[in-house]
Structures are given as C-alpha cells and as structure tokens.
Amino acid sequence: MGDLSQILATINAVLWNETWILIIAGTGVVFTFWSGFCQFRALMHGPKVVLGAYDDPDDPGAISHFQALSAALSGTVGLGNIGGVALAISLGGPGAIFWMWVVGFLGMSIKFVEVTLSMLYRNTDDPDNPHGGPMWVAGRALKKMKPELGWLGTTLAFLFSLCIILSSVTGGNMFQAWNVADITNEYFGVPGWISGIVLTVIVGAVLLGGIKRIGKVAGTLVPVMVLIYIVAGFYILLANFGQIPEILVTIVVSAFTPTDAAGAFIGGTVGSAFLFGMKRAIFSNEAGQGSSAIAHAAVKTKEPVREGLVGGMEPFIDTIVVCTFTALIILSTGVWNRAPDVNFDNNPQPVQTEAGWTYPDTVLDAGNWQDQEPLMMIVSAGENDATGQNIHRMTGNVTETDTGFVASWHPLPGDVEPEIVGGGFYQDYVGATLTAKAFDSVAPGLGKWLITIASWLFAVSTIIAWGYYGEQGAVYMWGNKSALPYRLIYCSLIIVATLGHIQTSADLDNLTGIGLGVIIYANLPICWIFGYQAMRAYRDYVKRLKAGDMGADSSRPSLDDLISGRNLQK
Known about the structure:
By secondary structure, the protein is an alpha+beta fold.
C-alpha cells in the first residue's frame, strides 16, 4: 500500500499546483465580470424558477427544475460538506475556509456557464430521455462552428467522457463509500465490507430506474438530509455561540497569515490554506468539473439560461451555506486541534530504518479500540514541503493481538531525527469522523447517530448522482448498451473502497484529488472555448426577462440565433 500511496501522491501533486488553482479561480473571476455578476441574478431569479413560476409541461425534458437542482445537489451536498471540510481544516487550518468561500462565489459563475452550454447543446431527440453535458458541447459545438474541426470536438468529448468516468468512481463513489464505512466502523464496529454491500444494493436499485427515479429520490432525500443536518448543527452552534465572531475573524486572518501548530493540527502556511481550501471547495461544489450540468440537462425547459441560473445556485448552497456550517461546528468545538488522546509517560526513542524514522510498537491500555484503526503522532523533523514548517503527521495503526491492542507506526522519510510534539498520540479522525467527534464533544452520542445517519444519506445521494454522470459518459462513447456494464462495475467499486485499503487522510486526499483534477483539465478548455455563447444567451435572456417576455407563449430565439448573437442585434 505504501508504494501505491506514493504513486497517488505524485500524480496528485502534478495535477494540483498553485498555478492551476489560480487558473480555475481566474476563470471564475473572468466569468463573474463578463456576466456582470450573474451570481446575484441566480440568487434572485433562480428560486422563482425552482418553485415552478416558469414551468411549461410541453417543454422537452424528463424532470422539473426542482428535481434537477436536487439531483445536482445530491452530487455536491454530501460528504464533501462533512468530510471534505474536515479534511480542509485538518490539512490547511481555519484559513482554508476563507478560500472555500471565494471558490463558492466564483464557482457560481463557472457553474452557470457549464450548465447553460450543456443546455444549448443537449440531445433531445428523445424528449423524455435527454442527454447533455460538456461532452455534448464539445462534440457538437466545434462541428457546428467549423465542420473541419469536428474531429477535435469529438476528441475533447471522448476525453471528458473518460475523465467523468474516472472522477465518478473515485471522488463520486469511493470517497463516499470509504467515509461511510469508516464512521460506521468507528461507532458501531460494523466491518467495512458489510457497509459496502448495503450501499451497493441501495445505489444499484436507484440507478436502474434512470434519471426519472434519480430525480424523484433526490427531490425527497436532499431536502430531508439537509434539514436534519442543519437543525442538529444549530444546537451545537448555540452551545458555542459566543465563539462564533472570534472564529470568523480567525478564518479570515488565517487565510493571509501562517497558522501555528496546535494540538492535533500541524500548522500551515498561507499557501497550504489556499491550496486545501480551494481544492476541497472545488471538490465539494464541483465548479469547473461540468459534472452536475449532466443532471441539469435532463430538465424540462426550452430556456437554456434559465437552468443555467438554477445551476448557479448550487455553489452558494453547497459551499457558502452548508460547508460554512460544518466549519463553524468543527472550529467552535476545538476538535481539530485537540490534545492527545493517549499520553506517553516518557516519549519513546525513534529508530532509523531504510524506509525512514519510526517508533517502537506501543502496547495500548484497555479501551474502545478497533483493529486497523488509524492513528497519528505530531512530530518535529525536517521541513514539511506541504506546510513550509517542520511539523509532520506520523501515521500508524492499531493492531489487535492475542494479548490486546498495539499501536504500530509507519516510517517517516527524511534524515532528521523526529521528536514527538505534545507527549502523546491521537486517533486519526479522518473526514466525516472528525465532524462527528465535534458533535459528540458537545452532546455525547449526537455525532454517533447524526453524522452516521447523515453520512449514509449524503453518501447514497452523491454516489447515485455520480453514477448517473459516469454512465452518461459511457453512453456517449459506447452507446446505451454500455449502461448496464458500467453500473455493475461502478457498484462493485463501492465494495472495493470499503475493504480497508484506504486508511489515512493523505490517501483520501490523493484519491479524490486525482479524480477531481483530471476532469477539470478536460472541462475548463470547453468552457473557455464556448463561454462567449453562454454570455450571449444570458444577455438575451435578461433582456427578455426585463421586458416581461417570458412564459409558455413568449417567443424564444433559436439555437442558431443564440450562438451567433443575431437575436441581440437591433
């Protein structure tokens, strides 16, 4: 597993660098100013659309605006909001949340462009079963603009389709399944493979029903799970209400100044806060990925921009509302920088091996331990490339023996002899488990039940949504006959993710980072090339909206007019 982790880390480092993240943020800035801050139009006009003010039963499509938003949110509002926020804080510190806010706002404009383009070029040959997404944009748009470039469009379409499949099985599937198995095992001792089987059965049953069943399930599941989570979260925030103003100040200050190591947090620089905050926010709200545009493309409407504005609401709901909620809970309870869970009477001496520095096995006192439960120690050693400081996380595992439990430590590469900081070690609460512990710290047992239930609901909805996204990529490349084989492979990977091969936050971050990275590399060029068409369509829509020319009987420009801009000419 060590070699695989290193390979994943290397690939992740190549895909995710500060230059590329700046490009993503820059794309959001360009679309924000180009559209005249369409974010505000999305927040003012979008809710009316979702509530059915402009619905027309004669329009092509399979699901309502509300169902489309719910289906898309089921792919975004999920364990990225519970586990992803926890990862951002544990790896980047409080400042990571500020950069999540930035991505949330800028992501609204990127999401608007993605969804609008997918609506412009969706396939409605079967009005009850439309297909859409960036692959259809690339495949159709270049051919329409310049027929001689049709081959390039097809190449981009196939590239995106391959990337959406990879992203669906990693971040959209295995990340979710792993988190559910981890937290269920942590609190109830249920082996991961059992959680995997249950998830597989549930997901398979919904995916077999296609987009209409997905829309119905999402339309019911998403509002319920968000309501449950927010009501319970308010209880925690009320108990720590006096800390909230100070926490908000800390978030902003930490975004621009280094954060010192404290307790279980190893400290971080402005760069690490920026990197992890941006990456986790992009993973959570999917801006730049083009994935949720696939769900929006199934909506029943003839107005591409209308659904684009609905899509623009997603990053606001996902990142600025729900992710902030989780962040305040984690930061206010102090679980992210807690004291050691187990203290040493005397710090053990490190031992140097060929693989690096390690520590002797530690016999654990009787307690609530699980075999292969992840552990970590905070040590001072050589420079940490990720944070620019000299504090590191040394990971380990609990091993059950005939005489009890033993803590074993993985080697820490480097020539500098490590020194234990804090005089003890920690249970490595990764992802959703850290958020659960935050709830438990205020109301013992609340995290156990709430986060376990929420994790299951969020994971099921997200895995279902991403199963549909990946399936549409397969259908684009290989036709409808590929849907069933894809579903079988996709569901089998749920079980693979719960077998214990992923054990640390680094493994988790690398796995989701790779899936997220490749799809953004494929999708953003599509947005850059054809973004002007979304802007033309947006200006036309706003012009007609202000003139009151909306409704079932109102005149709509043709696709050719929207693309060419002729409808805006006087």
